[in-house]
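We both want to read discrete structure tokens more fluently, so let's practise on a single case. Would you write everything just below, so we can both look at the same thing?
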Amino acid sequence: MYVVQTNSRVIERCLLLTTDPGDLVLDPTCGSGTTAYVAEQWGRRWITVDTSRVAIALARTRLMAARYPYYLLADSAEGQRKEREIFIAPSLSQWEKEGEGKGDLKKGFVYKRVPHITLKSIANNEEIDAIHARYQQLLEPLRLQINALAGQDWQEWEIPREPPLTLALSQGEKEQVEGLLAEYWRLRRERQKEIDASISRRADTELLYDQPYEDNKRIRVAGPFTVESLSPHRVLSTDAERPASEVEGQQQSGTGQFEAMIIDNLRSAGVQNTVKNERLKFTRLESYAGTWLHATGEYEESRPSPHGRGAGGEGRAGGEGEVRVKRVAITIGPEHGTVGPELIKDAAKEAVQGIGFDLLVVLGFAFDPHVSEEIKRYGKLTVLPARMNPDLAMGAELLKKTGAGNLFMVFGEPDLEVKQSAGKVTVAIRGVDVYDPTTGEIRSASTDDIACWFIDTNYNGESFFVRHAYFTGADEPYEKLKRALRAEIDEAAWSALYSTTSYPFDPPETGKIAVKVINHYGDEVMKVYEVFTL
């Protein structure tokens, strides 16, 4: 349950009033994904956007675990049969010509119908007069017989349902009058029933768009959808004309306010990797007026050593090893852009000048795929890319309550192997190389920390298209999927996707493939490989 989750009935009412099946619905404030959830249920296409990775993760999980009723499509064989059952009209000849239907969602569902009765439809219904005249031939003789036995002059609207107690009738006469009254009122009810049926039949029909017919033997899950990020972000040159709202927002934020907010949060949160207790904590972190460096500081690094003091950095002997004080430099990527290799290069050159630094932490909301290769070129200077939580872009006042350990995350670099054999290419993932900020060491981790990985088998250098999708991870994800969907899953089909080795595919026409790896926190890293036809 999201903290400001909207009732789905409210969204449902709005969608049904304003859209038709197949229409596109845009929700710029995703939250828990209620709009997307309801749009998916009622056959609307949807796009939903949010700045918080937490909201996107919740919405994605909610959609993937959702189960919907299976509504009958009007343009389907089942829908056409249902149409013939409930509504016979000349227009049905069109359905018969079209055959079994093509499953076009834009033609809508098969909806329940109710008559829309108006005074006009009643006044113009000639069949009512014919029904009334036919029954009047039976009712009028009965009225005359009742008046003769009861000694009364009752008109049609005065006929009682039972003989009044004031009538002086014998027992036999009373029973005879009761029988005639019962027959009279039976005919009246039949007449009214036929008149009501005629009115309903000849009245206009209203479709109940919130009550389509369902196939109770089938259930439906969410259709295919993608989760995309704004990478690379839009970057405007200084000469480009910008919207007035964007210029005003930049003026209000003030120069350096974004960097100051990031440094304050970094000072308190540190840098976290995928292991809970492995966090880079700064003993000192201060702003730095450099060209590419925004802050400098110190941190302690523990390294097992039989010697009390080692070369490179101040140190003190600990019970299990040596604790060294290391110098760290911080560079902050663009607020509305992507960190590329050029920024890494410029920041690294500045970091190695003078007495230099031991570690360069590069903060960014998104990273260019070529950054992973650039960070390996600076020898003793360790370059550590750390992803900033998108919630930080909302500013200090509107920053959501995100755990401190999730503000700045180091994911690591996937350990991949690309093979070519018999004209086909296969990719195998063996784990993730994780940087331990507490020791400065890089260790290999298994695929248990990887939630899923995707391959673009023909990467164009700009957009990543998921052409292969595979899932890994420990803790029985197959069982979790069954519980989430509350249904049996084809285990053979699932096993084909639960793999660390891809299916063989043809070499890319562009000469490049891209592999994107995502962990259980939603952090992702992408690597690009050049693959040529042998």
Remarks:
- The two ends are 53 Å apart (CA to CA).
- Confidence is low (pLDDT under 50) at residues 89-98, 231-238, 308-313.
- The first strand starts at residue 24 and ends at 27.
